[in-house]
Amino acid sequence: TGDLSDVEMVKGDTLNPEDTRKLTALRPVEVKEVDCRILLVEDGPDNQRLISFILKKAGIQVTIAEHGEEALNAIYGQWPLENNPGEWTLESSPFDLILLDMQMPVMDGYTTAKNLRELGNRIPIIAVTAHAMQGDREKCLNAGCDDYVTKPISKPLLLERIRHHLETSRAEMEAS
């Protein structure tokens, strides 16, 4: 941003056809529907609304948890687990993928991802965080996340990463 006093404002009806073609080319491409169930673990109401809106527009079923303990309850039905959860499989999971905020109250994303992996849960986890400093991505991956996206959310990138991890996990299920 800066001083815009010398910038000429243009009305839509004064654009020439070449400018119109350029603007049309910049319009977003229609989103292909994604058939899956995602657990969105996010404590911020604004981010919950924005991310779930993006996901629902892409045809995704969304369940929201406000922190890691709620996420584990949504997956296993009870947390902490009193007994061995038994054999967990991708087929038996109520979700196909988890979008996991890393900074939350009660149980943060790092602890949540670590707990899931220690229980043998292989559901794809994409970390969603405002932390974009060097080393943050590695910290998320080391905690057990499969991928990492930063806030503010890029809709095309988020949907591309979701599709990639769904395809990978479904291919692994078919191979086993």
Structure description:
- Strands 2-1-3-4-5 form a five-stranded parallel sheet, with helices on both faces.
- Helices cover 40% and strands 14% of the residues.
- It contains six helices and five strands.
- The longest helix is centred in the C-terminal third of the chain and has 21 residues, at 155-175.
- It has 176 residues and is of the alpha/beta class.
What are its keywords?
176 residues; alpha/beta; 6 helices; globular
Percentage of residues in DSSP E strands: 5-15%
Any idea what the shape is? globular
Helix amount: 25-40%
Low-pLDDT segments, ≥5 res: 20-27
Largest beta sheet, briefly?
5 strands, parallel
Ends: how far apart?
Answer: 53 Å
Average of the residue pLDDT scores: 80
Succession of helices and strands:
HEHEHEHEHEH
Question: Count of helices?
Answer: 6
Task: Please summarize what this structure is.
By secondary structure, this protein is an alpha/beta fold. Helices cover 40% and strands 14% of the residues.
Q: Can you lay out the helices and strands and say which pair or pack?
A:
Layout: H1 17-25, E1 37-41, H2 45-57, E2 61-65, H3 68-76, E3 97-101, H4 109-118, E4 125-129, H5 136-143, E5 147-150, H6 155-175
Parallel strand pairs: 1-2, 1-3, 3-4, 4-5
Helix pairs in contact: 3-4
